[in-house]
Amino acid sequence: MFNKTVFNNSAATPVSTGTFRDLAERLLQGEVIGPDAALALLRSDPADYLDLLAAAAALRRRYFGNRVKLNYLVNLKSGLCPEDCSYCSQRLGSAAQILKYTWLTSEEAISQAEQGLAGGASRVCFVASGRGPADRDVDRVAGLVGDFKTRNPQAEVCACLGILKDGQAERLKACGVDAYNHNLNTSESKYSQICTSHEFSDRTRTVEAAKAAGLSPCSGLIVGMGESDEEIVEALFALRELGSESVPVNFLMPFEGTPLADTWLLDPVKCLQILCVARFVAPQSELRIAGGREMHLRSLQAMALHVANSIFLGDYLTSEGQSAAEDLAMIQDAGFVVLDAAESRPDRTANEPQTRAEAGPVAEPVAGPGQEPVLRRRGAGTARQPNA
Prior knowledge:
Blueprint: E1 6-7, H1 17-28, E2 32-33, H2 35-42, H3 49-64, E3 67-77, H4 106-118, E4 123-128, H5 135-151, E5 156-160, H6 168-175, E6 179-181, H7 191-194, H8 200-212, E7 216-218, E8 221-223, H9 229-242, E9 246-251, H10 268-281, E10 286-289, H11 293-296, H12 301-304, E11 310-312, H13 324-333, E12 337-338, H14 341-344
Parallel strand pairs: 1-2, 3-4, 3-11, 3-12, 4-5, 5-6, 6-7, 8-9, 9-10, 10-11
Helix pairs in contact: 1-3, 2-9, 2-10, 3-10, 4-5, 5-6, 9-10
């Protein structure tokens, strides 16, 4: 994707605002940033964040214009996971009072997904809790995706089912899945501090298996778990090395009843700096502002769209997000337009018009700084309409 020229900047050397622009221009000429330069950007003076944002925005505009891609989550199976990931409300031993249910029926899952499409999403992410799928689970998802694609051939489908076994990625590809999500979540050097029931290498192997099967690799990270700046940079370069084409950046939602409850280590400017560095490290990757954006970016969410080109519409797996109406208004007010499903297709023709869904009803406010995440009580697994 890039030329192999690598440039670095000593982590001990202050980064000037002129350097931000210079680095961006060198990336646009095909050079590749190295870890020391990325660390220097991450440690740059918070007072200069607007200059850093402007430089990262130049990269975003070059590769993604003014489009924002909307992704929609459907939680096929919620809670009761046997893994011990410390950040997760669905983990083994979690006391978080989340929705818990076994597999949705195919019709219910498709109905939820189609409401996301009607809200403006071009990609639907089908997610199931657990270490990884049994072959019968893959067959279940394959049938669901086949039916969904028959009814919605324009939509992209991402699956997120955990650690894959041999042959499962190929089965998912054959049924029409376009992408596979399996986040690295943090750096290899920190991984054992957040999870002991599987290893970092299990995650990288799954991403590599998905990529080898022809699925678009989607893998990102969670920040705000006590990781150092060096560990953030390490994780970002691991994602680049894997060739992640879509990079979700999650901001820790500290659920009560999990080991990281009451962990509040981020502020909006730090979140923007992390997103900017992610854009510098992988200029051509889809960069998604994911879970926790509302409570950590807060009033700076719209500014983050100048760096990231993708968000989740509506709710998350176990918590509520900003209303879909507010998401769409935020995108429009910031001068962006929603990427429609036709534009996401590789076979799209230049003459096809762009469409945009109307916004739905406004939801109640989500959690603010220092407040418990609002647990999801609508959409998949409930009788209430989803936030789409």
